[in-house]
Design a protein that fits this description.
The protein is α/β, with parallel strands linked by helices and 400 residues long. It has 2 domains: 130 residues, Aspartate Aminotransferase, domain 1 (Alpha-Beta Complex); 246 residues, 3-Layer(aba) Sandwich (Aspartate Aminotransferase, domain 2), CATH 3.40.640. It has 11 helices and 12 strands. Strands 1-7-6-5-4-2-3 form a 7-stranded mixed sheet, sandwiched between helices. Strands 10-12-11 form a 3-stranded antiparallel sheet, covered by helices on one side. A two-stranded antiparallel sheet has the order 8-9. Strand 8 and strand 9 form a beta hairpin. The protein is globular, with a radius of gyration of 23 Å.
Length: 400
Amino acid sequence: MNPLLPGDPTVAGRLEQLHADLLQHRDYDLGFPGATDLPDMSALAPFERLLLNNVGHPFAPGGAYRMHTKHLEYEVVGFLADLFDAPLDNRHGYVTTGSTESTHWALWQARRQLAAPTVYCSSAAHYSVAKAAELLRMRVRVIPTDARGEIRYDLLHAAVVRDKRHRRGTGVIVVASVGTTMTEAVDDVARIGLALDTAGITLEQRWVHADAALAGVPLGLDDPIGRPAFTFTDGAHSIAISGHKFLATPFPCGVVVALADRHTDRGDITYTAAPDSTITGSRSGHAPLWLWYLLRYWGRPGLRTRAESARNLARYLEQQLRGIGWPAWRAQSRAFTVVFPRPPQPLLERWPLATDELGNAHAVMMPGVPRERVDRFVTDLRDALSAASGLGLISDALAS
């Protein structure tokens, strides 16, 4: 018996089969964002058998419990705060379970400061926005988008003015999608601010949260001149990113960064002797450790190279799809996401792609996706289209 395995004799076989199945699924994974170019992480192996609990937030002394990585978490938040132009003396944040928690936290903080706020988001916003608003018992106004998925600023302005006229509270929370789930369209935070200005919403009456789960870090690495406006200098009060999308952690996690002067602390918790304004309380100390290591490993130059390689692959896929006669487009020139009409069902059974109610599908060219996989996908799509054309299905798919 292998002393490294439990006494159950089926464990080894089940793990081997699971691993084989997952490797097979990975070979056909293009439809959902998750970087896979993870470097050698053996330096962190000694920490795998340690319980690391980052109870409380990292912008305060560690508290009574010492098995934590909050000093490294502080550096992770600082790296992203620098990237997103947060003032050195006005920044806060922590590592979360993912952007859903980050958005929930941002809306919670905004709700504690604003009078009877209403949440405004686009129809392309992540479904977690509505879920967080429901948990916090806040009204939600869904604003239509343009054809590519960007919020309609004129309709946002009209909705805010209408609610203000009907005295539906004075607080306004806008969730800007910085890379929508389906098309990776980006809501411009500066234009959102202008819409609120002209609607008569003061700076004290608003909170703009940028849900930048996928696109935040890649866009933050770009020259501010020419990139979409979404950082703190553009008017954001909080920004969320995912760790498992662009930063390649092999488990879901995220980071939320916010302006400290808009953050409300709950004070020290007697049991832990640590201030805690987080959602979850007990938090993974391993996620900040991995994020810290990856940010140190790549640095800004390495992250920038990975982003550009992913964009080049997205351009390549877009060209290849058009080359076989299948329409394809990207919502903005920096997007990793390529959108195209929903392929025939036999292809979707082989290549699981995200689809929407408008008849679109997409593929996301994340760091780590090999060009060979893209070529296989295009070949399989070409063959599927050829087979479907004889059944009269292609024109129907394009028409829908």
